[in-house]
Amino acid sequence: MRASQRALALDFGRVLTLDPDRSTYDSFLQRHGVAEQAFSQAWNAHRHEYDRGSVGTALYWKTILVSCLPDWEEADLQELTRELAEADFACWDQPRKALQTLIEEALDARVPTAIVSNMPEGLGARFVRQWPWLSRIPHRFFSAEIGLVKPEDSFYHHVLEKTGWTAPYVLFVDDLPVNIEAARRLGFETLLFTGAPEDFERIRTWIQG
Question: How much is the pTM?
């Protein structure tokens, strides 16, 4: 890629997907009498290291079970972990069709494109299998696979090193201000994604150069 060629780097959750559907956890919460707030607090408290890959799937969900379900049985661990992992996948399994269209436009126009996402082990590959169009994206950086997470500088440096891109020529699209601020500090063009019509127009304008 030419150093001055524009590139596109997009987050996954809440950018390529719609907002997560937390109702996928409802069956588990209701069946075990777990308060949604307690579950969400435990989910968030340990998610960063799960995304990094330093905590595996079984340990992550076991930690949540210990936090919010005191009477769970060790013998049920595998089944409960599988149920929660499936609910976790399902809540994000809602592609944002308008972004899919824009990505396909970018790829057809030979605009270098990447996914840059905090993503637990195995989920990235599973989404690629679930949504075949993702396989067209040549660069896919899922945090657990590289042992780095946003908004750490090392994550962004890794993306630039592996792609050969130059930060000022990369439009970095993310829904979290903290990730956007880190990217901007390192020289990226940025878009704090809200799903507003002007967000899609900004991406299309960038693709068209």
Answer: 0.95
What is the band of 2 on the pLDDT scale with cuts at 50, 70, 90? low
Domain with residue 149: its CATH number is: 3.40.50.1000
On average, the pLDDT of the chain sits at 95
- CA–CA gap between residue 134 and residue 104 (Å, rounded): 9
Is the pLDDT score of 3 beyond 70?
A: no
d(CA 184, CA 191): 9
**CB-count burial class (<10 Å; 0-12, 13-18, 19+) for 40:** middle
Q: How far apart are CA 185 and CA 181, in angstroms?
A: 6
- Interhelix angle 97-108/197-208, nearest 10 degrees: 10
Q: Of 61, 92, 123, at which residue does a domain stop?
A: 92
- pLDDT of residue 208 exceeding 80: yes
180 DSSP assignment: H
Q: What span, in angstroms and rounded, lies between the C-alpha atoms of 163 and 1?
A: 8
Q: Given strand 7-10, what is the order of strands in its sheet?
A: 139-142, 113-117, 7-10, 170-174, 189-192
